[in-house]
Protein: Acetyl-coenzyme A synthetase
Amino acid sequence: MSDKVYDVPSQWAQKAYVDDAHYQSMYAASVNDPNAFWGEHGKRIDWFTPYTKVKNTSYDPGHVSIKWFEDGVTNVAYNCVDRHLETRGDQVAIIWEGDSPDESRKITYRELSAEVNKLANVLRNRGVEKGDRVTIYLPMIPEAAFAMLACARLGAIHSIVFGGFSPDSLGGRIADCGSKVVITADEGLRGGRKVPLKANVDAAVNQIEGGVDHVIVVRRTGGKVDMTPGRDVYYDEAAAMVTDECPAEPMNAEDPLFILYTSGSTGKPKGVLHTTGGYLVYASMTHQYVFDYHPGDIYWCTADVGWVTGHSYIVYGPLANGATTLMFEGIPNYPSVSRFWDVIDKHQVSIFYTAPTAIRSLMQAGEEPVKRTSRASLRLLGSVGEPINPEAWEWYYHVVGEGRCPIVDTWWQTETGGILITPLPGATKLKPGSATRPFFGVQPEVVDAAGAVQEGACEGNLVIADSWPGQMRTVYGDHERFEQTYFSTYPGKYFTGDGCRRDADGFYWITGRVDDVINVSGHRMGTAEVESALVAHPKVSEAAVVGFPHDIKGQGIYAYVTLMDGVEPTEELRKELVAWVRREIGPIASPDLIQFAPGLPKTRSGKIMRRILRKIAEDQFESLGDTSTLADPGVVEDLISNRQNKR
Ligand code: PRX
Structure:
């Protein structure tokens, strides 16, 4: 915690969309009369048929239902592309910066229109219609944005799977939503290394009964891949056969736009479903106000489109606003640790949005790689994905931003569709480590374990008392799970899964997850997923996974593993298990530390006491709490004496 405060610079208060007084009055209006507020702001997108109803939402247990602008008709691709053609057809929509600094490309809104329509026609020729699901497994190349918008244009529901997920994870996601079409690339390229995307798709599809009907393969590296006749087609060959005109399907505001799988505390990843109208209104409005986006800004969000940040703040929000959005294929330290700053200079980026884990890793390389670049174009910095520690915040502010650029620390989730708690740069003073105040229409509350709402300065669990337009609508195919996961812990409220503190100024400080979800380098991971991967190994009898504090990643993955009788706990087996998890889930789930444990701390009823495992992983041996309810208190001593050290 830091008690530093940075006041809003006066030129920001004057030039930004909102200053503090304006924020206060808009916020009050947004929560006092959401129908009037969103009825007005819903007009920021174009509607084929205007809505007459605005908010129709219920958090009532057993009847959770969320609808916004429900009788309006529109199309997301129309809003992100077509409506800009008349006024800014020749403006750059997407700047693409390749993995290698020698490769970049600029795509105007007019070119974007042609590309999206072609891809939509390629899908349409393969039978894709409104409501069909299409899985996208692409690297960070412009075709990823074209594919998203092409689906939106046809009314097909895209499900993007991050390129770092294994064939198993990909297959599970294709099967869960019943995609019949997959869009991929021959290979991805990251930090000079190739990622075998098409081979992964082949392996994934082979596990699915009935397979898929079509695999569309974008040539990225030109590497040789297996093509299954009748099923697989190279995108460039298919695109050569179609026109660049394709009508935009009229979509009801509540028709689905996309599914994005995310981890929870139990079970397999959930298909978070977002719909059309409310999502786009919310993504575009937050993009404009939070980043104080003005025409002429060059805006860069370093996320991957495989995560929600890429959906809302690389593609949909910025393009709905007619912005120039930069898409980066590479990684922060290739070919050098100056890469981010070099790209900022090369493309004259004015708004830069990245994750604390990237900041921490670059901070380790010192100031020189930053200072050798200019960064004069920068005027605003953003952070997302996990709590930012004050040291990283200060470094970002003073070294990267040279004390000139406000930092917006944006708290939100896959489920929320857009940013919920954040500073507005012309309105909100900054406190390093605090996401500060709610965005318009967002009503955060802090509750204690029993659900009692806390007043004033307090600490507890973060809930949101009422709906906002960008909220997820359901878990795809499992509405009951949606209600259970988010609305049953504190009935009548949306439970975020995060803990938080509210200070005397009413500022929020997110303290991290209070459930069995961990956040590794800003990637969300369910400990249960890693556990089930581990126990699938023939030599493993039992596993328990917890997070532990990690200097760069924020949290690392700590696995306690009990082996089958007679299996030797060797260093080799440890490596084998790490490789196994990588193969089962993907590299982002690799355990950092594996401790072989003859026994796990369990209650007499057999429940694993994770609280104790967490404390051991955190080196907090003194605060293990009550261990007297354990079936065998002796296991704790063994666990402590064999604690694995951070490497
Ligand atoms: O714990 C919070 C953390 O990331 C979780 C959501 O993860 P995901 O759905 O993958 O979305 C990440 C990008 C929006 C949250 O429950 N989180 C995200 N942003 C912040 C954060 N924690 C603290 N501060 C943030 N700014």
Summary: The chain is about 30% helix and 25% strand. The radius of gyration is 24 Å. The longest strand covers residues 540-550.
